[in-house]
Amino acid sequence: MGLTQWAYPLAESLLAEPLPRRWKHSLGVAERAKTLAPILGEDAELLEAAAVLHDIGYAPDLAKTGFHPLDGARFLRSQANTDERVIRLVAHHSCAWMEAEARGLRGELEEEFARESPQLVDALCYCDMNTTPDGVATSPVDRVNEISGRYGPESLIGTFIRRAEPEILESTARVLDRLAAAKRQPM
Fewer CB within a 10 Å sphere, N or C end of the chain? Predict the structure, then answer.
């Protein structure tokens, strides 16, 4: 069974019923991931699987620490035969280290889960931050504004997302640069 054949049903079983909007978002993030196949090569399926699974830590049955990247990665680690790279991407998606730091969980996150390659971390951040909560394409600036507005600018999440915004924009720029370079390559 391929990674995506395993990942989609697992994510759906955890998110679709209790968190339908989060499920739509996850499906949209996976759709963005598919668009990056030209720059990912053999890692395309890996990214798509991580994209659809990135927010499973929000599932009520999995939420233990309140920090969804850590909760999701811990759950995936407990599942038989889960690809270690998928686990690492879920653990470190979308500048998770900054939120972990704000929650006093950075040490746990980094001790338990190594970071994946910078290109894949950028790619997952790009996919997540270019997708609305309803799974529709957006810009990272609009996404950051939406998150800040939803949680409130003074909240932990609102403060974290504003702190992470420069890195989110840089990640997006790096992915777009790689896509542009791939299009310029002769076939």
Answer: C
